[in-house]
């Protein structure tokens, strides 16, 4: 369902295998520049009639492609084929395909798409045997000659470039395999923001000869999410006239001076464990978005948002662990103290006091939730897995 529940490292053979470059042993000396030129999300077949196909999912594999939305719905760490074709291939001209992930929403288009902190950590199993500059990329390509460009710390867009080989005899397409190694829902990564991949056909100077766009959702329930988004699209089509694909670039992010960091305690009763967890996750996502706005600035303005992020994250972790323990009938005893109060050495801080008051209230709500859960026989708990809670421990 979401990022806590089903993070499973890819099978080891995916990584550290000859499929991925572990050393800079690229054969081609000439490559396009490391950054895309004329980056936009306008479809452009170009002079060579560049086409990109997501090969329909005929077998029972856990990913789906919606032609209606031109969008792939796929789980994390799963390879999927992408087919490229050009109608007229000039002789003696090397062609390259660049895949650049961007945020679909105009207000985030300027921001770089990169992996979340948990997944880009060197200790993450998916990074084993890879060069560090690959860790930040949400996408990977199985082609040995693929090169990974960009660095979020240098504000350079992360993208993958590979030489477009000639199609095999009898076919017109060249097939390459990609996979995503971070989910849309990962906090401090994509953070629930929708993305799309811009595939550009380029010559060795980086001149764009064609451009195709494919929307992506990396999630745990591709089928469910595809059906939901298709239904939503139908509804909005009926409600409004279709709009053009071209979009304006987003305005610059707001400066730090108009940030509202005042604490507003919230005490509401929520029905249902799923809804409760969703509200916590949504709140965490909001805080992560605020933190990301300060990325690269040295103002320190993200501190209150990070504190709130950590607190909400801790609540989620506690809730998931307790739920899991009850659902799995673990032989453990959980003891709650009457309240969550700061220790004696805690400096008096009214804002912190309010937060702890809220946490205390949530603690009581949690106890009630746990009681309800203990009485519930139908929950199997396959959507709750505390094994991943260590990824975001709420400490940095
Ligand atoms: Zn991630």
TrEMBL record:
Residues 1-27, 226-254 are annotated as: Disordered. Zn(2+) binds at residues 116, 119, 182, 186. The keyword Iron does not apply. Gene3D superfamilies: 2.60.40.720. It is found in: Nucleus; Secreted. Binds 1 zinc ion per subunit. InterPro entries: Adipokinetic_hormone_CS, AKH/RPCH_hormone, p53-like_TF_DNA-bd_sf, p53/RUNT-type_TF_DNA-bd_sf, p53_DNA-bd, p53_tumour_suppressor. The keyword Secreted applies. Residues 226-238 have a biased composition (Basic and acidic residues). Pfam families: Adipokin_hormo, P53. One of its GO terms (molecular function) is metal ion binding. Keywords: Activator, Amidation, Apoptosis, DNA-binding, Hormone, Metal-binding, Neuropeptide, Nucleus, Pyrrolidone carboxylic acid, Secreted, Signal, Transcription, Transcription regulation, Zinc. There is a cross-link at residue 235 (Glycyl lysine isopeptide (Lys-Gly) (interchain with G-Cter in ubiquitin)). Its cofactor is Zn(2+). GO terms for cellular component: extracellular region; nucleus. Coiled coil: none annotated. GO terms for biological process: apoptotic process; neuropeptide signaling pathway. SUPFAM superfamilies: p53-like transcription factors. Residues 40-232 form the p53 DNA-binding domain. Belongs to the AKH/HRTH/RPCH family. Belongs to the p53 family. This is P53 domain containing protein. It comes from Asbolus verrucosus.
